[in-house]
Amino acid sequence: MTAPDPGSARGKAGALEVEHVALELGGRPILKDASFTVAAGEFIGVLGPNGAGKTTLMRAMLGLLPLSKGAIRVNGAPVVRGNPSIGYMPQTRSGLAGRHVRGRDFVAMAANGHRWGLPLANAAARADVDRVLDLVGARTLAMRPLSELSGGERQRLLLAQCLLGDPKLLLLDEPLISLDPRHQTGVVDLVRSVQRELGITVLFSAHELNPLLNSIDRVLYLGNGSAALGTIDEVITKPVLSQLYGSPIDVMRVNGRIFVMAGDVEVDKLDHAHEDGPEGHSHSHDHDHAQGHGHGHGHGHAHHHTGTHSHDV
Ligand SMILES: Nc1ncnc2c1ncn2[C@@H]1O[C@H](COP(=O)(O)OP(=O)(O)OP(=O)(O)O)[C@@H](O)[C@H]1O
Ligand SMILES: [Mg+2]
């Protein structure tokens, strides 16, 4: 692991503090009592079986869902809807592949919002769009329509969209879904490099741990209504995972990869076996990309970023 010493940020207010949080949906308990603190500048992998509450927890951080108990603080402040310091990539991203809108215009949609018609705001929004496209190395590919981009390339533009407005915390919900393994690695590497460059905090949910192994600082594992946050060695263990799954779990390490097994079945294969369809989901949430970001606030910052990346995504 090449973690940048997230420990140095501990002791100060965490980037994300979750204290005895309970969450319910339709009267069903999703989380019962979750407590953890993410330090500023950490890259956290969020794992757990289908339905464990990964998406629900992210929505609670965005103020889209009331807490039934406990408190969440983002950069020391209570959760607020439309918080401009959080960038969000929702899990459901249906239909992007069929859209003929130019990549740049797609990214800009989330920046402009209601500000169309205000020349100064538009200039600032344009500068922000340039900034985020440079950050993900997508200035050139953003000239093409979404329908002509690969899944990995579209993913880069979605990441660019989340970076509008210069958020300090990114919530990325299943950015690897429906990508082939090569593109998965490219997306993880891209997020990691942008996260380091900006010094921001990232929560990155995924079905599978292995694509994240070399990038994440710590892992947040949800299951059985609770949450465990720690290093891979602390969390990806027989006792911790057996508790979170509510059944006996084995952890096998083979050639630098980790397999989480229930009996002789790999749990992520088991859980997500039904997710092979085009959109890959058996349930969906009412996300809308153009409004799911909480941006459109304060695009008047000066951005001095000039670097570009070239990633094989
Ligand atoms: N509107 C709703 N009303 C009631 N239950 C819901 C609602 N939305 C989601 N759920 C349930 O809440 C639980 C948590 O869902 P959530 O989407 O947060 O899980 P997840 O960990 O993100 O799962 P996945 O890996 O499939 O994305 C699931 O059992 C889901 O079926
Ligand atoms: Mg989810």
From TrEMBL:
Residues 272-313 are annotated as: Disordered. Residues 16-249 form the ABC transporter domain. The keyword Cell inner membrane applies. Residues 292-313 have a biased composition (Basic residues). One of its GO terms (molecular function) is ATP binding. Keywords: ATP-binding, Cell inner membrane, Cell membrane, Membrane, Nucleotide-binding, Transport. It holds the Pfam family ABC_tran. This is ABC transporter-like protein.
